[in-house]
């Protein structure tokens, strides 16, 4: 059964002045249900992740200040959201959702979190609308509990997963791979195990060729027994922040290629939605929903 993490708190009430489209987290499940792609029983509701588990990938002092709402104002500005208890709770829910989603992926081959992919949060900092790094915490959870030995994180959001790279810079058990806009945020990059920066305006053919040249080699080299996939749709030409020129078909082929490789190498995969900032919300939601549809088709749900 396909299992999908969703919590009502994912739709955090961030108002005018912020460009993060929170409404997509409500619309994705509604569209999937409306189209009959999934049923209500496919969704599960996460709980608040504990302090101890959050600290698997983050500095305890940073996590304590986050939970206590005592972060330095400069850090709050770096994150980009006003710091509130409900915002921190939202982040705690999505981290637990990704952990449980990873466990379901080991059972069913693949699982999703409607939110997540908060890859700008590093070991001791938040940034770019990210407070806690859900896939990093989930990776450390699997390793700590001996549920995985070698993890590959595939980050295809248009923005480099700098926080993920920061957390795992000295970790031999987690291999980080990122294709991202060279001239895009964050403007000071961290070093992933493999970074493939691309120029503004790149189109489907060039992007997909780059992915196909490197991803199968990584499966053979890294030999992961678990994959986390950050499937941001801000690579689309319609995206306000992405600066790339991929079509919806190209974005779909990207996701299909990643999931086909996971299937071919028989590696379970946990998928988070990541970024998407197209002018029209329907373009964001449609692109995200395609990722779910690909999974349903490939994994015969």
UniProtKB/TrEMBL annotation:
InterPro entries: HDAC_classIV, HDACs, His_deacetylse_dom, His_deacetylse_dom_sf, Ureohydrolase_dom_sf
CDD domains: HDAC_classIV
Gene3D superfamilies: Histone deacetylase domain
Claim: Hydrolase is one of the keywords in the record: yes
Keyword Hydrolase: yes
Domain (Histone deacetylase): residue spans on this chain: 18-289
Superkingdom of origin organism: Bacteria
Keywords: Hydrolase
Pfam families with a match to the protein in the record: Hist_deacetyl
Family, similarity comment: Belongs to the histone deacetylase family.
Protein name, entry field: Histone deacetylase
């Amino acid at each position: 059964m396909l299992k999908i993490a969703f919590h009502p708190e994912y739709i955090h009430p961030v108002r005018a002045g912020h460009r993060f489209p929170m409404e997509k987290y409500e619309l994705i499940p509604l569209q999937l249900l409306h189209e009959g792609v999934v049923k209500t029983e496919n969704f599960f509701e996460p709980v608040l992740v504990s302090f101890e588990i959050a600290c698997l990938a983050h500095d305890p002092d940073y996590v304590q200040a986050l939970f206590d709402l005592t972060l330095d104002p400069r850090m709050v500005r770096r994150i980009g959201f006003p710091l509130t208890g409900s915002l921190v709770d939202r982040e705690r829910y999505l981290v637990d959702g990704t952990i449980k989603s990873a466990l379901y992926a080991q059972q069913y081959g693949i699982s999703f979190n409607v939110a997540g992919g908060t890859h700008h949060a590093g070991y001791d900092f938040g940034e770019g609308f990210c407070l806690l790094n859900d896939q990093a915490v989930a990776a450390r959870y699997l390793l700590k509990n001996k549920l995985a030995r070698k993890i590959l994180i595939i980050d295809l959001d248009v923005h480099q997963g700098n926080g993920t790279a920061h957390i795992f810079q000295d970790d031999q058990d987690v291999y980080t791979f990122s294709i991202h806009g060279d001239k895009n945020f964050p403007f000071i990059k961290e070093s992933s195990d493999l970074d493939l920066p691309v120029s503004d305006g790149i189109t489907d053919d060039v992007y997909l060729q780059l992915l196909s040249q490197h991803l199968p080699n990584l499966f053979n080299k890294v030999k992961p027994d678990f994959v986390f996939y950050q499937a941001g749709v801000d690579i689309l030409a319609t995206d306000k922040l992405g600066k790339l020129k991929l079509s919806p078909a190209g974005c779909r082929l990207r996701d299909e290629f990643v999931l086909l490789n996971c299937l071919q190498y028989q590696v379970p995969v946990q998928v988070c939605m990541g970024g998407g900032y197209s002018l029209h919300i329907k373009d964001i939601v449609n692109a995200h929903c395609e990722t779910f549809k690909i999974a349903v088709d490939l994994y015969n749900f």
